[in-house]
Design goal:
It is a single chain. The protein has about 90 residues and is mainly α. Helix content is about 55%, strand content about 0%. The chain has 5 helices and no strands. The two termini are about 15 Å apart. This is Phosphopantetheine-binding protein. It comes from Hydrogenophaga bisanensis.
Length: about 90
């Protein structure tokens, strides 16, 4: 099995991650309406720190690795749907 078959690329993960966010937060938006590079926090989707904690929890459960609240890279990891998907993909290949 090649790495491409074992681990989806960030582009392949984005629809799945968008659906996870919408479902976890009961958002009034469809997953396909979340733009890959729009901010998740504040403007963009308008999420707050509690929402980010909820996303971290569902991502941890779904993908089997911890997103810690004290991670100095959280601002970058949660910057956008694309950034979060890239981080998930990088964790799954390690």
């Amino acid at each position: 099995m090649t790495q491409a078959q074992a681990f989806p690329s960030p582009e392949q993960l984005m629809p799945e991650v968008a659906a996870l966010i919408v479902e976890a937060l009961n958002l009034e938006v469809q997953p396909h309406e979340i733009q890959p590079d729009d901010p998740l926090y504040g403007e963009g989707l308008g999420l707050d720190s509690i929402d980010m904690l909820e996303i971290a929890l569902v991502v941890s459960k779904r993908y089997g690795f911890q997103l810690k609240s004290d991670n100095e890279n959280n601002h970058r990891i949660f910057a956008s749907l694309r950034a979060l998907s890239e981080h998930i993909a990088s964790q799954r290949t390690q």
